[in-house]
Amino acid sequence: MLRHQDDAPAPAPEPLIELKGVDKTFGPVKALSGLSARVGRGEFVTVVGPSGCGKSTLFNIVAGLEEPDPGGALRFEGRSCHAADLLGRVSFMPQRDLLLPWRTVIDNAILALEIEGRPRKEARAEALRMLPEFGLAGFEAQYPHQLSGGMRQRVALMRTFLFERDLMLLDEPFGALDALTRTLMQRWLLDVWQRHRRTILFITHDVDEAIFLGDRVLVMTARPGAVKLEQRIDLPRPRRPDLVTAPEFIRLKRTLLEAIEEESLKSFQIAEEKIR
Ligand SMILES: Nc1ncnc2c1ncn2[C@@H]1O[C@H](COP(=O)(O)OP(=O)(O)O)[C@@H](O)[C@H]1O
Ligand SMILES: [Mg+2]
User: Fold this and answer.
1) Rounded to an integer, what distance in angstroms lies between the CA atom of residue 137 and that of residue 154?
2) In what helix (H) or strand (E) does residue 208 lie, and over which residues does it extend?
3) 29 lines ligand 1 (CB under 6 A)
4) Whose C-alpha lies nearest to ligand 1, atom 26?
5) Atom 14, ligand 1: which residue's CA is nearest?
6) What are the tens digits of pLDDT across the range 38-96?
7) Going edge to edge, which strands form the sheet with 29-40?
8) CB-based contacts of 155: which residues, under 8 Å, 6+ apart?
9) 51 lines ligand 1 (CB under 6 A)
10) What is residue 4's predicted lDDT score, i.e. its pLDDT?
11) 55 lines ligand 1 (CB under 6 A)
12) Nearest ligand 1 atom, CA 24
């Protein structure tokens, strides 16, 4: 067996999902062009990019909700597949939390299990056991309108966790939260992730969030979206809250911000040309 030297980088985990040269067109709009990315088993990969660059489109393809244009390649667990094959193999939380207002916390949490055909009683019992970990103990009978924004997001996250799949997709789950709640939720999510050891693809437009959470950050170009930069984040885990002021963090942030600003400027210029 080959031995790795102590100073050699850790071997990359086996890829769970891979996209190669993926395009996606919506009528006249080219949303993605030649996008290639890979998420290793057990990895936490974050994706940042200017708004409208195709982040949610990427997410929808990996969730199996949209088929990419012909020509690109999609592989799951090493096997070539269509996006539609991923439906049901991936658990996802869309950009809007989509809690059903007429269902209680517990019944919102078990929605995906119910759709899958699990008996309601059994699903409820499992969700009840999970409530404390999600900071929702005692709130099982409440309705979404009775909860704070952070709690509603935790219900939506719990629903995603309960639907146990190898890959979890989270599309800007903390985007609508205030800054303090947001950092608390990030720390909490890392805690839960380390206990449950899932593979996560996490979309955000917040660079600090992308660095704080990720093993790797993918920066997307302006539309049509592709991966502009792939940055390893070798910051130690567990990540402590004061990490965001550490020199290595700031250095990474500068690199990523530069890449994103260049792209945001491009999308801004494209928009301006259209107005003129
Ligand atoms: N279903 C769709 N039909 C038509 N256009 C779409 C659709 N989904 C996304 N788009 C367009 O594709 C581009 C990328 O959108 P999106 O992936 O939502 O970007 P992001 O999530 O990065 O803000 C946008 O111009 C958007 O209007
Ligand atoms: Mg989006």
Assistant:
1) 12
2) helix 207-213
3) yes
4) 52
5) 54
6) 999 999 999 999 889 999 999 999 999 999 999 999 999 999 999 999 988 899 888 77
7) 29-40, 15-26, 73-76, 79-80
8) 97, 99, 105, 108, 109, 134, 136, 144, 147
9) yes
10) 47
11) yes
12) 12
Q: Which residues surround ligand 2, an ion (CB under 5 A)?
A: 55-56
**Closest residue by Cα to residue 80 from 19, 158, 151:** 19
Mean predicted confidence (pLDDT) in 97-108: 92
Percent of the chain with pLDDT over 90: 66
Provide the β-strand partners of residue 204: 48
| Distance from residue 267's CA to the centre of ligand 2 (Å) | 15
Cα–Cα distance between 79 and 120 in angstroms, integer?
34
The CATH class for the domain spanning 26-89+173-276 reads: alpha beta
**What are the residue ranges spanned by the domains of the chain?**
26-89+173-276, 98-164
Look at ligand 1, atom 12, and give the residue with the nearest C-alpha.
31
Task: Take residue 211 and report the two structure tokens written for it.
Answer: 């660095």
CA distance 196 to 164: 10
